[in-house]
Amino acid sequence: MPDSATTIESVPLLDRPQAASLAAAENERFVDLVRSLDADDWTRPTDCLAWDVRAMVAHVLGAMESIVSPRELVHQLRAGGRAAGGRPLIDGMTEVQVAERAHLSTSLLVERLVATAPRAARARRRLPAPLRRLPFKSDVAGVTETWALGFLYDVIYTRDTWMHRVDIARATNRQPVLTPDHDGRIVADVVAEWARRHGRPFRLHLHGPVGGVFIGGDGDDEEITLDAVEFCRILSGRGQGTGLLTQPVPF
């Protein structure tokens, strides 16, 4: 990100080619991190309290396999609905993804992830226009929202994989690979959505290799300074925030 301040209005929405490029790169980075794990790393707890590293990898793999296979997607939707009960469907789907891959060895998890990650990125890019317009309901901090399926495929899946890469890096005491062109673009998109959701003026100073200075409105309402990755962790519900940082963003 540049050193000069960026107005929120100047941060463009992700178009399909850029979303596809980010998805492919993020999937590759996630695979690279998982392939580097030691035997002891797989059982380490993560910021998602119900999951250790192994369960988190199983979730990401399950999500990717649902993208590649329509049959697997339908299965996860049906089984996830039964598992969710009265909870959001996504909660049931993630439980199914983890449970149905619990029997896999870590080596087989890695093998399937390596094979599936690039295919999942390609499948997301090729989602037909009529399907992109279909509604998809999800939960954001206890509030049900309806998104277009294209938003899920273009934006949320990449954010989810990115945040879980951060989760695993933190759990295993590794430094995640962070670059301005890739991670910085993901962070800027999060900042822009956060700003649209709360609609208040602010000046945001994000530190680190993927940070920058962002201004919304006249910038006189609230000034916030913190690390760029921590900013995203707070908005995802992994950390505590005050003021405008209580406004969640879906990951």
Automatic annotation (TrEMBL):
Gene3D superfamilies: dinb family like domain. GO terms for molecular function: isomerase activity. InterPro entries: DinB/YfiT-like (IPR034660), Maleyloyr_isom (IPR017517), MDMPI_metal-binding (IPR024344). It holds the Pfam family MDMPI_N. The keyword Isomerase applies. Residues 24-169 form the Mycothiol-dependent maleylpyruvate isomerase metal-binding domain. It comes from the Bacteria. Keywords: Isomerase. This is Maleylpyruvate isomerase family mycothiol-dependent enzyme. It comes from Microtetraspora malaysiensis.
